[in-house]
Write a structure and sequence with these properties.
The structure holds two protein chains of two kinds.
Chain A lengths: L2 E3 L4 E5 L4 E3 L2 E3 L5 E8 L6 E7 L6 E3 L2 E6 L4 E6 L8 E9 L7 E2 L3 E6 L1
Parallel strand pairs in A: 2-12
Antiparallel strand pairs in A: 1-4, 3-9, 5-6, 5-10, 7-8, 8-9, 10-11, 10-12
Chain B lengths: L4 E3 L2 E4 L5 E6 L6 E8 L3 E9 L2 E5 L6 E5 L5 E5 L8 E8 L10 E2 L3 E5 L1
Parallel strand pairs in B: 2-11
Antiparallel strand pairs in B: 1-3, 3-8, 4-5, 4-9, 5-6, 7-8, 9-10, 9-11
The chains are: A mainly beta, B mainly beta.
Chain lengths: ~120, ~120
């Protein structure tokens, strides 16, 4: 069965610290997509990244980077030099090619960045 | 701004009542998805429509129904409301039939409070 686990419920850091949010997924499909979304205090869900199961290349976008490792079924997200505006709930999600079109979300990690 | 519009933003209603949540997808998107976010269940997929037809169903209660109209906007109808239906309801849209091939962009959500 498909599942996404975000073991870290809450993380607190001080500005400029680097922080890594963990995501472990379970799927039987060989073709699947992984996503990260950000939910700031205002409540909307903001799309951050989508990766497919055939592309294990790490990605960097500004202060954000993602490490996809199929061997450990992980898709971790690192924020470098965190800022107060990064405070939000971050969700990792999985979408399987065969099982359907829905996104399966983890429980989310609440990141608090203090100044 | 994701381009997905949900109305109303907030809704307070009594148990046993019926409400309708509305979603306008991004221009050009044919798929609409509904998700429910509650404290105990997290983010859960409810239902998907593609170009007016139901495509996938998740954990949607029989008291809930949805439809997508010819202009592609969608409505989620919740009836015989219970306290436990209080949640944030998100609509998402994507160009294609499934999130495996396209990003899904979320609206700001409708916060439903049942009293």
């Amino acid at each position: 069965a498909q599942k996404v686990t975000q073991a870290q419920t809450e993380i607190s850091v001080v500005e400029k610290e680097d922080v890594t949010l963990d995501c472990v997924y379970e799927t039987r499909d060989t073709t699947y997509y992984l996503f990260w979304y950000k939910q700031p205090p205002s409540g909307e869900l903001v799309f951050l990244i989508r990766r497919n199961s055939f592309d294990e290349q790490n990605e960097i976008s500004g202060r954000y980077s993602w490490n996809f490792q199929k061997s450990t079924s992980s898709f971790n997200f690192t924020i470098t030099a965190s800022q107060v505006v990064d405070s939000a709930v971050y969700f990792c999600a999985l979408s399987e090619a065969l099982a359907g079109t829905a996104l399966i979300f983890g429980k989310g990690t609440t990141l608090s960045v203090s100044s | 701004d994701s381009g997905v519009t949900q109305t109303p933003k907030h809704l307070i209603t009594a148990t046993g009542q019926r409400v309708t949540l509305r979603c306008s997808p991004r221009s050009g998107d044919l798929s609409v998805y509904w998700y429910q976010q509650s404290l105990d269940q997290g983010l859960q997929f409810l239902i998907q429509y593609y170009n007016g037809e139901e495509r996938a169903k998740g954990n949607i209660l029989e008291r809930f129904s949805a439809q997508q109209f010819p202009d592609l906007h969608s409505e989620l109808n919740l009836s015989s409301l219970e306290l436990g239906d209080s949640a944030l309801y998100f609509c998402a849209s994507s160009v294609g039939e499934g999130t495996v091939s396209t990003e899904a962009f979320f609206g700001q959500g409708t916060r439903l409070t049942v009293v």
